[in-house]
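TEACHING EXERCISE
Course module: macromolecular assemblies
Task: Read the component lines below, then compare them to the predicted structure of the full complex.
Student: A.B.
Group: 4
Components provided:
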Amino acid sequence: MKLQEYTESRHNFEECMKCTVCTAYCPVLQVNPRYPGPKQAGPDGERLRLKDPYFFNYALKYCLNCKRCEVACPSDVKVADLIQSARIRYDKSKPKLRDRILASTDFMGSLARPFAPIVNGVTGLGITKNVLDATLKIDHQRTFPKYSGRSFEAWLRRREKEQAAFPEQVSYFHGCYVNYNYPQLGKDLVKVLNALGVGVRLLEKEKCCGIAMITNGMSEQATRHATHNVAAIEAAVHEGRKVLTTSSSCTLTLREEYPNLLGVDNTAIRDSLLMATRFIYEKLERGASLRFRPDFHKKVAYHVPCHMERLGWGVFSEKLLRLIPGVEFTLLDSACCGIAGTYGFKKENYAASQAIGAPLFEQIRAVDPEVVACDCETCKWQIEMSTGYTVANPISILAEALAD
Amino acid sequence: MNSNEFDVIIIGGGITGAGTQRDCAMRGLKTLLIERSDIATGATGRNHGLLHSGARYAVNDPESAEECIKENQILRRIASHCVEETDGLFITLPEDDLGYQQTFVEACRKAGIRADIIDPDLARRLEPSVNPDLIGAVRVPDGSVDPFRLCAANMLDAKLHGGQVRLHTEVTGFIREGNTIRGVHTRHLVSGEEADYYAPVTVNACGIWGHAIAQMAGVNVGMYPAKGALLVFAHRVNNMVVNRCRKPSNADILVPGDTVCIIGTTSTRIPFEECDHVAVTPDEVTLLITEGAKMAPALSSTRILRAYAGVRPLVSADDDPTGRNISRGIVCLDHETRDGLAGFITITGGKLMTYRLMAEIASDAVCRKLHIDKSCETASIPLPGSEEHSYEAVAQKIWETPSMAQKAAAARLGTSASHIQTSSRTDESLVCECEEVSVGEVNAAIERLDASTLTDLRRRTRIGMGTCQGGFCACRAAGLLAKASGCIEKEREGLVHFMQERWKGNFPIGWGDTLREAEYTQWVYKHVLGL
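Instructor-supplied answer key:
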């Protein structure tokens, strides 16, 4: 008789051998002694929480959800998932108004977009920052992302016909950032894909991936978004299209957090959802070609976002950048920039956030690149604000290097 | 009275001995307890930790059932920090006879045990781990009880009432005067120091080892060693006790206790020589997993932490080869009336659940011999640690905003957690990461609860009981012991011994994650620590 051929536990917490490597790799623990660390907060704490939710530790809110513990774990324990799902299950405190505002990226975007110049002006003012700091506890030292006057969706919709003419078609999950803050990234992607003979479509209707809702205690809303997005993406997949993304955090959420944290099944779409850099790199590998500007020259330092590391796809962006003639490439050390989405905006986390990012900022200054490449918008805000260097998505750098 | 003279000497540091010492001490007697090893090393610490409602015995042994439910209600009051009020289910599976349920419920009610037949759907909601195929369920007031804490709290209270305790001390012989036992010869097993103690009454409360102690005194107590094997799973699968609603059999109780859950037991008669070295066999492991998975299917894929076995101190009554039909009733023998040997009492049979009643019966017998007219108060006065009813309230009261380790300590020690030092960062740092045991808590156990070895500490704090099985905590705790004892070499040897003992419990279930972790621990101890 074969007994116990395998053992299973929620997020693999019993696979933990207590080797503690996750704790060594946790960026928060190094700057915040009040955080119990991934091993304590994850697999160790889970056993106590199963005994009684009383043993839920509110210090779990200090977790960045950067997933570096999961990358480090040799036993495939989903450490960060354990922590986040414990927060979802046991944290009974209601999200504060601030957290709701920070988490509702698409709602705020749709409100702010029509008044972009005014909103941008106002949020840039010192007095606004001081008011937000005092009332909502959003740290006054933080620079806010600018809103764009016209949404990416509106821009692409006007080019539907032209895009439909391409022999190959993909759908694009652009995310809130591209839609409301920085449509240029979406335009850059369209430029690159068009050059490869690929037309770009919108999804039927996409909603915010919900990552900020998950980390801000709004899992019910996040689940609604997840269910909607999976259905929208599935419709595109059903018609034979891949669905591309340019944000590593949206991608991780759609691929991993939906099933693991929200219990939303995404098996039908998981393999068809790709970061654009991976899609493009694989296309070039298979023989497609791009024409580059002969005079292009740029010193690029690539920062792999934590969620890109978790996906294991940093290598595609890196290889793609290295392919561009004229790129002088430096791969920055694996490190967390510290912002982790909405985390770093909160007053109580600001100091920790900047301390976590300090080694990365220092290295960027030492390398002194013309541009820092990075697949994540919140890393971009953090690095630009903290170093003064310009940060661009690898897709934008690629678009810039293309011959017209 | 000289320092080596007492009113009563109690041999055996299990729950019966500790309970008897507390009872006698509360009645004003000068007491001494002698234990050759540590508290709760025998059957006391080697069972499910089930706070029986008595339902399990209701059909076959109504007398035990009645005792159980009475003691169940008493322990909830006096030992709240050792008890978890989980309630229990008696489930009927498709292969069981649903007709038994009626017999069972009637017997329970007759014994005074509340037994509610509930809808299988409700049972699935109350306890999601239960086999979804169940066709019947009865809810009873079962619970779980931590035998180590219970034993330690009894002994602590005896000490607070002037009692003395000698652990790691062996009784090497009796001091006799004609047909009267006047005291005992003892030897400390670590230091080798010999000492004689005198008392007009000696109580034999040694569980299955009481057979040998009685022989040493020249009387015969016919005992029946029945081994029971159990498995500890690495986390809680269930939050209610789950039983099978059928005639008591093997592996039909699953008890949630602290951070783990425990399935058991088996029942096998073994020779007396094996009582000191019971081991769990592969057949027993197979049986426990297979039968356990019928009650909670998740058990077939849940990591197992340890296997262990205990020996029930049953008193022979008939020729039943399984031991299942022997009454678990309490046996108190006054050897003066029974065998003509004065000054000697044996208290045995019974079970963890009825320890307090056993202690009361034994203490009554002691008092009769000493012509002391004091009544028993153990049913109404809470044990030290149980003055508050919930650990939430305890933690809140002591620390206001308790840390995880403080919450965990309050759950383990109740109000006694206030004796844990938290003045420095060292006090608050963790010794055991799996179970959240702080340096302060370990030091408090060394100072207040007579812990002198790592195994002693394990029973009092849960260090070494988590998934790493001592890998991380044992060396840290050994350091604290060395600081307290001033002897590094002794603790170093103790550490080796402790880790080997932990491996003994891993060995019968040495596969999968438990094996990986044991190997990892071995690398650390062998190659990093050089042991």
